[in-house]
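Supplementary Note 3. Input sequence used for the single-chain structure prediction.
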Amino acid sequence: MRTDRFRRGLIASWLGFLLIVIVWQLIATFGLVNPELFPGPIQMVQSVAANLTVGRVLQHIGFSLMRVGLGFLIGGTAGVVVGVISGWYVKLGAVLRTPVELLRPIPPLAWIPIAIIWLGLDEASKVFIISLGAFFPMFTNTYKGMITIDPNLIRAGQMLGLRGGKLLLRVVVPATMPDIATGIRLGWSYSFGSMVAAELIAASSGLGYMIMHARELGTIGVIVFGILLIGAINLATDYLIQDAILTRRLRWHYLSTI
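The predicted structure, written as discrete structure tokens, is reproduced below.
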């Protein structure tokens, strides 16, 4: 039954997407808006075919995924570690909460000048920007999971003789995994959002660079294609993450919520 419900939901979502594409094309075809500013799907494909090659697009995707992957690994790992430590040591968490909440709303674009000053124009500055995008949702969700864990689980672990690090690693962290999994999905999506800002820093490749270069050339179709491509890649990778973590590693939690 769960499989049938999932299949129906998937079909409905793709039908909705197809409807949007049809309406989009009709708006462009009948000239309801300026096609130079809002090209339809057909015009977008024609613009991409005239200005890009498949090899070049794959190259942009490869560079962007490399940066996102490395930035997410660094920022996400740091977010989980700091979140676990802050949740385990209450006084430390109280100290770190205000600085993190102060920095969390700052958009990635605001960090670009200081990233250039600290790390130059190479890949390190781009990875730094993406890492920030991954760090905050990972920290926030991990910390939330740590401070909202069921006290009965901790008492049960203590009754079994677990103390200190063993109690943390065998009971507390596993119980926090559903929140960490949510942080992983959010952090991965935020990393993609930070990627465009990161690739403003003297980049010569990547999807963010492709969009900005298309803006300079005035090829609106390529800009729209780049935006949609970022969304499509994020959607596909998010599905893979959800499948790998939620329905496999955390199957016990997934089954309890359906």
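Residues 1-38 form one domain. The radius of gyration is 22 Å.
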